């Protein structure tokens, strides 16, 4: 999952499909500052190759990224010069500092394996937020909005290369299994590789319950954003005790 082959073409594919990273980042930044006025430091969790983080860097004075895939993290370092990119797992990282805002985009939260892991991970995020800081979560699909058997395809030509992407998604228990085939062709030849993803289908109610359990008393779900997946925006409580003990400062 998320290896060197995909890191090379990931951003090109999604730009070719019309994804506007800057517009998405600007919208998220506006919603963050509506809750945390003056927010100027941001951590982008599961930052990938740095596409959203590069946009956030134009909107916040200090940005950092966290990414589990080392090939993706190395790309992010090139995409956002000067930003610290941490290689780590969203479930158990400790960066030793807090941020005004945390984001996790592109449905990456769905890689968590259970409701318990979702709540525990939101607590990890909370420990990295200042009191009153804001968390923005672009969720994966809900069970009722997921399309079983969905097929997607795209073809782009850029810099003398042709890149094809075809995906098939199907229900597997309480998760979606997505198999994605890529063909990358250029003057040097053509190659094919496959990425397999198992992404959990948490319900909207489960997300909201997890936010409440993890210490975010004020959470809003905004429909229609991010290709229809929506966006959760949550404010961390201002209680300096409890789950903060032993956390970053």
Structure write-up:
- The chain has 249 residues and is an alpha/beta fold.
- The protein has six helices and eleven strands.
- The chain has helices spanning 4-16, 21-35, 51-56, 70-79, 115-127, 204-214; strands at 41-45, 62-67, 84-87, 99-104, 129-137, 151-158, 161-172, 175-186, 189-200, 218-222, 231-235.
- A seven-stranded mixed beta sheet has the order 3-2-1-4-5-11-10, sandwiched between helices.
- The protein is globular and about 60 Å long.
Compact overview of the structure:
With 249 residues, the chain is an alpha/beta fold. It contains six helices and eleven strands.
CATH class of the largest domain: Alpha Beta
- Quaternary structure state of the chains depicted: single chain
Total strands: the figure is 11
- Name of the CATH homologous superfamily of the largest domain: Vaccinia Virus protein VP39
Which CATH architecture of the largest domain is right?
Answer: 3-Layer(aba) Sandwich
Query: How large is the count of helical segments?
Result: 6
Q: Give the mean pLDDT.
A: 92
Give descriptors for this structure:
249 residues; alpha/beta; Rossmann fold; S-adenosyl-L-methionine-dependent methyltransferases; seven-stranded mixed β-sheet; four-stranded antiparallel β-sheet; 6 helices; 11 strands; 34% strand; disordered C terminus
Topology at a glance:
Elements: H1 4-16, H2 21-35, E1 41-45, H3 51-56, E2 62-67, H4 70-79, E3 84-87, E4 99-104, H5 115-127, E5 129-137, E6 151-158, E7 161-172, E8 175-186, E9 189-200, H6 204-214, E10 218-222, E11 231-235
Parallel strand pairs: 1-2, 1-4, 2-3, 4-5
Antiparallel strand pairs: 5-11, 6-7, 7-8, 8-9, 10-11
Helix pairs in contact: 1-4, 5-6
